[in-house]
Design a protein that fits this description.
Order of helices and strands: EHEHEHEHEHEEEEHHHEE
Pfam families: Response_reg, Trans_reg_C
Structural class: alpha/beta
Mean pLDDT: 91
InterPro entries: CheY-like_superfamily, OmpR/PhoB-type_DNA-bd, Sig_transdc_resp-reg_receiver, WalR-like, WH-like_DNA-bd_sf
GO biological process, one term: regulation of DNA-templated transcription
GO cellular component, one term: cytosol
Radius of gyration: 18 Å
Number of strands: 11
Shape: elongated
Organism: Caulobacter henricii
Number of domains: 2
CATH topology of the largest domain: Rossmann fold
CATH superfamily of the largest domain: Response regulator
Distance between the termini: 20 Å
């Protein structure tokens, strides 16, 4: 899952980037509204954490422009403005959630998890696909109760696939949602990680749809989520 963090405070940005990376997200950072608007319009993020008090272009204006341009990425507003009128302005501009500074990082991560679940149509805090379980709160996964040992990229790939289980996902889409902007992307590496996941999950859980991509499904006879 790939997140855009829009925050002009260098110390807070570093803190949040580390926390988000530790939680299993790929993170891009924009320090001002101008860069944020460009990235939000040109890159396929799973969610955006958006500060309102930004240099160049304020956060509400950025959000309004995204929504006018049909950018539907879920947005969590993060701001020092705590007045109810500022919250209303943020929601009316198209925000999905709001968190006032100062805040606990754990609350931000919990709100982000909820935002991602809702956007993908999931209600429960943990995700499942038959006997496969993933707990985004702890960044852990298991198959039939047996814990899986996953690298950060394997976890990120599994997280995205289980969020979109049952749908064919192309290699390009996976690359765009697994890696941050600075990563040297190569769609061929997706096949390597798919192969590693199959060894850990069982070969039949991830189906190859020739010419289109991959689909995560429960095994025959297993209950769906």
């Amino acid at each position: 899952m790939r997140i855009l963090l829009v925050e002009d405070d260098p110390d807070l940005s570093r803190q949040l980037k580390l926390a988000l990376a530790d939680a299993g997200y790929a993170v891009d950072h924009a320090p001002d509204g101008e860069e944020a608007q460009f990235l939000g319009e040109t890159e396929p993020y799973d969610a955006v954490i958006l500060d309102l008090g930004l240099p160049k272009v304020d956060g509400v204006s950025v959000l309004e422009r995204w929504r006018r341009g049909n950018v539907s990425t879920p947005v969590l507003i993060l701001t020092a403005r705590a007045a109810w009128s500022d919250k209303v302005a943020g929601f009316d501009a198209g925000a999905d959630d709001y968190l006032a500074k100062p805040f606990h990082t754990e609350e931000l991560l919990a709100r982000l998890r909820a935002l991602l679940r809702r956007s993908a149509g999931h209600a429960a805090p943990s995700l499942s696909c038959g006997g496969l379980r993933l707990d985004p709160r702890a960044a852990r996964a298991s198959v039939n109760g047996e814990p899986l040992r996953l690298t950060s990229l394997e976890y990120r790939l599994l997280h995205y696939m289980i969020m979109h289980q049952g749908r064919v996902i192309g290699r390009t889409e996976l690359v765009e949602h697994l890696y941050d902007q600075d990563f040297d992307r190569d769609s061929n590496t997706i096949e390597v990680f798919i192969g590693r996941l199959r060894k850990k999950l069982g070969s039949d859980r991830i189906e190859t749809v020739r010419g289109l991509g991959y689909r995560l499904t429960p095994l025959e006879g297993e209950a769906t989520e």
